[in-house]
Fold this sequence. Notes:
Blueprint: H1 5-12, E1 19-20, H2 24-39, H3 46-57, E2 64-65, H4 71-78, H5 80-97, H6 100-103, H7 105-108, H8 112-133, H9 137-140, H10 154-157, H11 164-168, H12 174-185, H13 187-196, H14 199-208, H15 214-226, H16 230-244, E3 252-254, E4 261-265, H17 282-290, E5 296-301, E6 308-315, H18 323-341, E7 345-351, H19 369-374, H20 383-400, E8 404-412, H21 419-428, E9 430-436, E10 453-457, H22 467-478, E11 487-488
Parallel strand pairs: 6-7, 6-8, 8-9, 9-10, 10-11
Antiparallel strand pairs: 1-2, 3-5, 4-5
Helix pairs in contact: 2-3, 2-8, 3-8, 4-5, 5-12, 8-12, 8-13, 8-15, 16-18, 16-22, 18-22, 20-21
Amino acid sequence: MVTDPALAGPLGGLWLSAVRTDAPTLLVRAALWWRDLDRLGVHVPFFAAHDLGLLLATPFDRLAIGPRPGLREHLDRLDPPLAAAWPQYLKLVTELAAGEMAQSAGALKLGDELVVVLLARILGPVLDAVAASGTSAAARAGPARPATQLPLQPAIFEGLGPELPRLFTAVPRREELLFLERALQARLRILTIVDALDLDTLRLLGLVGDASAGALGQVDLLAALANPSASDVVNFSLELLPSVLETRATKAAGTQAENGYGGVGRRGTIDSLVLTELFWDDEEFARRMFGGELLYFTREGAPDEAKRLHYVVIDASASMRGDREVFARGLAMALCKKLQLAGEDVWLRFFDSRLYEVHRPGKRTQLPAAWLLGFKGERGRNPARVFAQLATELALLRSRDAREPVVHLITHSALHVPRSLVAEVRRHAHLFGVFIVPGGAALDLEWVDLLSGHAAVDPSMYSRGARRETATKIVSEMTRPSPIGEKAF
């Protein structure tokens, strides 16, 4: 039984919820959404975050839409204004539940960070717009900031249903009434925002495992959802990912006494010695043993620790707008995902007139997809400065990290950099370049011969009909196991 008066307000408001679930874990998630919405400055009653959040994040067959038992009779008797507004709210929730977004929630499997951002996108502008144009003082005065936060413990929500009428009457419900009035005034806008959400973007964020976390991650997600060109990048990425997701980390040969034999190697223990080696005479056997020429059966083992660091650097200057931006970012996302699935470490970075902060995915199965989709460069173009900064940072990296850097550069063909700067970068790392050239032009850079490999991509190669084949070929070449040697791909 809930006895804390501070909890009676938000928990009692659940009696107004039009979406019902009996799973305490889902109620804990709703409490988390409500807390994070408040941190973003979107102050709504708990039942609103609960209802809309469950529609966005929970399979429809696990929910029930409708009033709780006895709610309408209670409101008619004790709170006529709420009794008049609540049926219209139920109608709004029913319309949202019938939409494509709610019907697809089970397949999308949205994370909590993304649910919070979607709720803020749906409710934040609505509250701001209606508050600014409200016709009454009550409508212009925003709902009060929650005085307390709900504990994120399932025990708080177990057996809560029978207590809701008591908790509901424990405190005045002015905030809930204000929210219902605002939501009903903005009904069409809410429906329009939800209908305009790009399901492909949400599907991609779930597919690549977005690495964004915390408040900064939510900012990246908001930027990605607001970026007009993100939809094209998403569609291109979804074209590439099916072939990329087939990548698996290869097994390494080990000597541990586990698993089965996986091959033959030059290292091992005496019990795994290939028996034909015993046919050598004593002198030859001794020579082969001291020379490391004896053959041993090797066992399957985990892949060796990555000895390379892949540094993906993407041009975000004004010369990379439109189709060039779509191709570059889609290619970068596919390249990074393929490298991760192969067990490699990947860092990502944008540049225009300078290098921006580096993103280091904390898990090898995740990418900062929202950041890749929403980033905007606004600082002009200065390739020489970028390469000078990159050379300095690579030199520092090599001094404290044993891994060998491999720089993947995705940029425009007019990247005029002094040859000496490129040579300095090349001295510290393998350098691969993907250059997007204007139609009818040729790649004409004096330092191309310094690269370990490069590709020149003209508009005919990244048009909608050919871009998948082009990008797939480039990704395959850039992720070969031994990126050493001069080649063009």
